[in-house]
Specification:
Blueprint (H helix, E strand, L loop, with lengths): L2 H11 L5 E3 L3 E3 H16 L5 E6 L7 E6 L5 E4 L9 E12 L5 E5 H5 L7 E4 L5 E17 L6 E2 L3 E11 L11
Length: 178
Amino acid sequence: MSPDERAGYDRTVSGCGNYLLVDGPVPLAQVQTALTEIMRETLLPESSITATTWTPGLARPGFHFHANGPSTYSGDTTRTAEPLAATIHASPRYHWDFGDGTAEATSNMALAAKGGSAVDVTHRYSRPGYFRVAVTVTWTGTFALAGVPQLLPLQPVRLSTATEIRVTPLDTVGALPR
């Protein structure tokens, strides 16, 4: 192929992107976007936060937060996304914002090694007041389609929720001043 022929070919295919050829050409990004919406709207549970007072040994009280949801997701979309039937494997990462200027990122793998769970975190507040606690769960993983031999990456699926808590002076006993 001459340089001019190559340039003409490059112009012709530019912008085509990656395509899946299952029952005709479908842009990979379109499939990823569709699966992201299916996961967000149908397959993954709605996020929620449970907050309880946590007082280990009656010293430095704080709060224990729990985000609902599975530690991994494995399943398929055959009943929810006809004709887009995919097998999905995904795991979550959690980003907690405690409303007082502090945040924590957790993952199931990091905390499982310590005997904990990423959906459960504890936090101590240094002052009383009302705080908006938020968690964003980001699901990442792969999917497979019938007739496509390799696993394909999912677009990240983000689910967020928040709740307001009240921290009383008793909840900050022994907390370090800021």
